[in-house]
Hints:
There is one protein chain. The chain has no helices and eleven strands. By secondary structure, the chain is mostly beta strands. The strands form two sheets. Strands 2, 4, 5, 6, 9, 10 and 11 form a seven-stranded mixed beta sheet that branches.
Amino acid sequence: QVQLVESGGGLVQAGGSLTLSCAVSGRTFSNRPMAWFRQARGKEREFVSAITWSGAGIEGSDSVKGRFTISRDNAKNTVYLRMYSLKPEDTAVYYCAAGQAYGNTDLRSPGSYDYWGQGTQVTVSS
């Protein structure tokens, strides 16, 4: 079993920055793809960004490109999402997800991830 715990969410003004963290425990972290998704109230879950087990980043939609950066620290079993120039439309619950060991297929799809965190709320005020 893999446990994921997100942290770092909160309330921020438009134009501000936040860094989300996702601490992973239970099984090997370094060989798993990791991702961030978000879900705004009344909307479907949306892919934000992913990072392969080898460290290659996969960007999400145009709405976050150039503003959000994913990274991982295998020594700390942690994946990060650094968010800059935040907008009110970035308001959502952000979820961390872990895929199967050495998985690299369709990493933009929620179905490619077996383990999920409980989510952390990000609220961007205008």
